[in-house]
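Please check these two lines:
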Amino acid sequence: MNSRLRTHVNGLILIYFLAFIVCGSAAARNIGDDADIANWQSYSNAENKFSFKYPKDWEVIDEGFYKTGFGLTIQKISGSEDSDNWIRINPPQFQEEDGKCVEVNKQLICTYSHDADVLDIFKSVAASFKLK
């Protein structure tokens, strides 16, 4: 990718991220009751110093370290392995043209899913993501 295109893409990502902060965080809070999100499970990673919340019927799969960083997958318990209905933190080689991806506190949060429920959970996970 040439530098002019990379600058343009980075600018679009920044605009999307800022729009997400302004609009997406409010939308994420409208999923069910605030009590539902407040009762979600919390995941904390002491080594990489971050935490986030996720639904009780979902699980976190630690994918450990790889060349480009640390990775996790969040998916519905007993979800199909061939499904795109997952959320990944720092996925290796994610292709943004195939799904949604936001950067929160220098961590990429991505999904290939087009399912409205998964996209709502994606927004909530991103909104709850915090550095320790």
About this structure: Residues 3-131 form one domain. The helical segments are 3-29, 34-38, 116-128. Confidence is low (pLDDT under 50) at residues 8-33. The two ends are 34 Å apart (CA to CA).
